[in-house]
Amino acid sequence: MTTLRGKPPGGAPRNLFSYRKFWASRFGTAPFLPMSRDEMAALGWDSCDVVLVTGDAYVDHPSFGMALIGRLLEGQGFRVGIISQPDWSSASAFRALGKPNLYFGVTAGNMDSMVNRYTADRKPRSDDAYTPDAAPNRRPDHAVVVYAQRCREAFPGCNVVIGSIEASLRRIAHYDYWSDKVRRSVLPDSKADLLLFGNAERALVELTHRLAAGVPIAEIRDLRGSAFMVPRDWRPGEDWVEIDAASVDTPGPLRRHPDPYAATAGDAPAVRADVPAKPVQFHGAARAPRRERSRTVIRLPSYEQVVADPVLYAHASRTFHLESNPGNARALVQAHGARDVWLNPPPLPLTTAEMDGVYAAPFQRRPHPSYGEARIPAFEMIRFSINIMRGCFGGCTFCSITEHEGRIVQNRSEESIVREIEEIRDKTPGFTGVISDLGGPTANMYRLACKDPAIESACRRLSCVFPGICENLDTDHTPLVRLYRKARAVRGVKKVLIGSGLRYDLAVRDPRYVKELVSHHVGGYLKIAPEHTEEGPLAHMMKPDMRSYDQFKSLFEKFSREAGKEQYLIPYFIAAHPGTGDEDMLNLALWLKRNGFRLDQVQTFLPTPMALATAMYHSRKNPLRKIGRHSETVDTVRGAWQRRLHKAFLRYHDPENWPLLREALKQMGRADLIGNGKKHLIPFFQPPGTGLRANAPRAGKNIPADSPTTRRVARNTPAPARPVAKAPTKARRA
Q: 543 with 466: CB under 8 angstroms?
């Protein structure tokens, strides 16, 4: 019988820093983890125990994954080298540090390589923020696969372990937007021995010590947060039971529940006004005892099945996300041909003391000296910022944070954070007294958690804040207010800004926090992310409605006035998200105009692997509810013309977009919004030299057949006579 490592019988996971240090700890701490043989020789090393391969430049800062992991392993006594942005055209660059004694650790970097290299329109990006001087094309497409294969070529037989956000988001069969097809798990393509997903400190430390003790990597099958290839029908022990994913969430007709992501175990009865409503039972309320769940594996539809059937893809996505809480998640298995990809349950969160230990490593907080004076934009952005937590319980369907970091927020202590502020003050060149951010995935989730650990462990909700904030969620921001006050009291600190995105529906629950934030920690502008204004898109995003935004805006303006400051909210919105129609985008544009917003930067929905919104995009089904052949169909914006249109609505004020918007408004029967008055969205006239790139096709010509606009062509209103062009008045900015 195999027991998942990391959680002994007592229930608490093994402390990250309780392992006996490896013998190589005698070499001490490296000023920088070596990137060359000369640096290894200067440290007295004849070899590396672990070689980390990364698609990013090596910056010795805790915001860069290779530095965080490398320093953690160094603290355990291992010799760690780094191969940064190697030339992948051959295996030569992967031999730079010699054969590692234990394994290659392969990562694409802080971003998925495809997101890093291509825009939402599938066009190559002209720069790379994680590269010296922002040079493009320094990493390959699907970098984890390419790097892992080159490591195999460089040293056949060497252990290869893959990780990072790219590996996490591709651990099962997934839709790949850039090739517009479902790809296999990254495991069979990379030929890696092991995949570690999520924040993998626990699994990585355990794995490294066991390999150092001589345990073959093929026998290490019991680490939480790990995935690997096994023969079909392999089991960790004879007492393990396999169940089909259909029994977890049986595909069938849609039944609407008060909580859209908490389906009952059976079909919902009809609701009658004369019969008191029974409490909704969350799916899984009658689940087996936990000791049985810990010996249960759920078989997802196979790779071949999800390729052939988008409905099964959506069903697999829903099942995968329902099994994401480390307190109750079961193992998952998915067939790829004659073999299976086996996923152990997610890693257990780190305690505050462990988080402090991870961030207490001796980081130099600057790029490796080999880069000279080259500027690395990603480092410039974060060098005066501090990560105070990880994880997010928001569950936004378009976001990958939950799939990677999990829904349970893991926090650092106030002492650890203050110590890092002092290190920035004392060690980081160019510090002027301004901390640019105290945050994380969400700025104001610090120390927010479920009121009852038992409820948290059993919960199967996909979000703690949608469709409303859970009554079991503690929304007291007092610890964060206390942290802010301690941070700005540090000697030498003039200002502490909050640069991470704010969850305003949580903030309005605690006006004291909003007052503290607005009075002391806003540098003129505060970014928040409503993402949309309309109910349909917001429901498919799992975002709150605009009432929370209005409440926060009112508090923001009130406390700004009381502080005697002129400050502004900067809202972010997404165009072309699944569940968004042309009229939704038009209504959003009208809201922007009414409120005086003229957006400079806008975001078009980018389907990232494994996200729930990506499942909507690919399958046109809604995995927030039970999946069936006849269940809800989600409008998806797929054609280039319609994606440009939705983006143009967000930038209605840009003359380049006016020809496209005029054509669309006429086709939508809303030509009344074309004119030169205040009630109009866009003018009749077109400034000379503008709009040439934005001309839209005429009705019935090159317009996507499934576009809602096409279905409204019959209501087309003739364009009014065009007046003599005149110069537009100067645009007002909010």
A: yes
